[in-house]
Write a structure and sequence with these properties.
Largest sheet of chain B: 6 strands, mixed
Radius of gyration of chain A: 13 Å
Structural class of chain A: mainly beta
Structural class of chain B: mainly beta
Number of helices of chain A: 0
Strand content of chain A: over 45%
Strand content of chain B: over 45%
Distance between the termini of chain A: 36 Å
Number of strands of chain A: 11
Oligomer: heterodimer
Distance between the termini of chain B: 42 Å
Helix content of chain B: under 10%
Helix content of chain A: under 10%
Shape of chain A: globular
Chain lengths: 113, 111
């Protein structure tokens, strides 16, 4: 399985600011995903990060709010823009490994005041 | 469409008790099924999976059998430990590698 790291692991931010979360994988992967997990909730897919092209966003998520970069097959960033307290969540990146299995990073815990 | 329905928690058990967490699914085609575990303060870890009907996934004493006839993938463990306290997510992989997660079941095991 792939080893996935995320930075930062947690942060406390002021409303109106932006935070960029990094996801690094120890091997090249075709598909990378970004999820949000609101407190006490399940995972919601934000977008699929595509290498060399714009990310594919799920319903309810837009590029202006959650811009994503994927410059190569081992790295991606998610920015949470113009934050509000409702953006307080855990943000997780994942990759698709062999046999249709997704592997997850440790998550970034974000609190917006 | 695809969806996963998971037993609601929280579940509290005494150490060495038997655990069952129910999971049923709706899917087009033949999805792969997964159980993920999230320990406090951590991300999701793959616990076990099954890729076709009648397959049994197992890991760390946990088991789940892919039952096509009942569209179920219930998680079981014969004797839980305090260290099993976590949130458990059932998931399926649909077409285009889209994952569908259940709502999660919180398990607390008390000594």
């Amino acid at each position: 399985s792939a080893v996935i790291s995320q930075k930062p692991s947690r942060d406390i931010c002021q409303r109106g600011t932006s935070l960029t979360i990094q996801c690094q994988v120890d091997s090249q992967v075709t598909m990378m995903f970004w999820y949000r997990q609101q407190p006490g909730q399940s995972l919601t897919l934000i977008a699929t990060a595509n290498q060399g092209s714009e990310a594919t966003y799920e319903s309810g998520f837009v590029i202006d709010k959650f811009p994503i970069s994927r410059p190569n097959l081992t790295f991606s960033t998610l920015t949470v823009s113009n934050m509000s307290p409702e953006d307080s969540s855990i943000y997780l990146c994942s990759v698709l490994g062999r046999a249709e299995t997704q592997y997850f990073g440790p998550g970034t815990r974000l609190l917006v005041l | 469409g695809n969806s996963v329905t998971q037993m609601e928690g929280p579940v509290t058990l005494s150490e060495e008790a038997f655990l069952t967490i129910n999971c049923t699914y709706t899917a087009t085609g033949y999805p792969s099924l997964f159980w993920y575990v999230q320990y406090p303060g951590e991300g999701l870890q793959l616990l076990l999976k099954a890729t076709k009907a009648d397959d049994k996934g197992s890991n760390k004493g946990f088991e789940a059998t892919y039952r096509k006839e009942t569209t179920s993938f219930h998680l079981e463990k014969g004797s839980v430990q305090v260290s099993d306290s976590a949130v458990y997510f059932c998931a399926l992989s649909g077409t285009g590698n889209q994952f569908y997660f259940g709502t999660g079941t919180s398990l607390t095991v008390i000594p």
